[in-house]
Write a structure and sequence with these properties.
The complex is a heterodimer of chains A (123) and B (243). With 123 residues, chain A is an alpha/beta fold. Helices cover 39% and strands 17% of the residues of chain A. With 243 residues, chain B is mainly alpha-helical. In chain B, strands 1-2 form a two-stranded antiparallel ribbon. The N and C termini of chain B lie far apart (78 Å). Classes of the chains: A alpha/beta (123), B mainly alpha (243).
Chain lengths: 123, 243
Amino acid sequence: MSSHADNKDRQFLAVIGDEDSVTGLLLAGIGHVTPPPDSQKNFLVVDSKTDTATIEEAFQRFTTERKDIGIVLINQHIADRIRHRVDTYTAAFPALLEIPSKDHPYDPEKDSVLRRVRRLFGE
Amino acid sequence: MSPQPPPLQDTETPLTIDDLLARYLLLLDQYTALRTTLSAHSSSLFLNLARSRFSAQRGAGAGGHPFGPDNYDMRMQAGRKVRVRPSASSAAEPGPWTGHGGEEGVVFEVVSPEVSRNSEKDGDGQTEADDDAGEHTSDEQPQADGDDIKPAGKLPIPSNDPLRWFGILTPAPLREAQKDAVEMVEDVIPRLASLDAEMVAIELAVRRARKRRGKGEIAARKAEVEQERAEVIAGEGGVAVGC
């Protein structure tokens, strides 16, 4: 388990979502681009042309490689595309939350937290 | 409003599985309630974004603001940041999203740098966030309005208010969308993350307790069998002596 000192550096939210979700969350001021030459963004806009490998790569980057991310937000319908990765993600940091999108309302059946609840109660 | 679960005791006696599950169910109740709140804010956000696009297209003809990735300022700096603190420090204010006093319990907060700087300086835990992102200044940057203030050899300082990416005269629905987003980011999302962290901790505790109980049951059964065997042997011995 990582120490509290390590977690202090986890100061950004990251988002993997469709255009409206990302635009909305960036309006709240969570967007961050690191200085060049890296210029790493903490968001990925996913559209119909975005392939699953790109989403997986962003998920990997936000959850494993970058140590400055505290919370990762991902649209539930996009999480469905990498469900195996999302459901097997067990690290405490960054926290992972599935959020609804414009065209795909929140579905409790797919929520990884509620899946865990069902497992705990032996369903 | 759902009732606030009492914080778990941090005593030496281990909590029973029933205690843990009772707390878990209360957390689950809060989680589902917060999920409903998040969905409501999201719907409002998406509706306001659609309204702002509509009004911009009417006002500016075919070349209206799309309010999308093309307008993002790629020099953006986070105006709201995550703060992770151990839940033990929040013992004075036990809430639905505080941990149970163990080392693994954490609380997520999202604060603007202004708030975080004040609370660090004062140490008085000031948490009132300013909803208007336009008034925030970043830790790393001087006030964006002062055009004459420039760091040596750097690009001009971008405005810290994302609304300005979309022009000076932004439609009212876009400002409403921003309010929804701020509420989600500052309030609902960190609480959901904290609840999730605590639920994970309780799941682990329940599994450990179940394992312990299972081991205890096996040991008790073994002891029972041994006792029965001893009684049988003793009985056989008594019969042999009687003969």
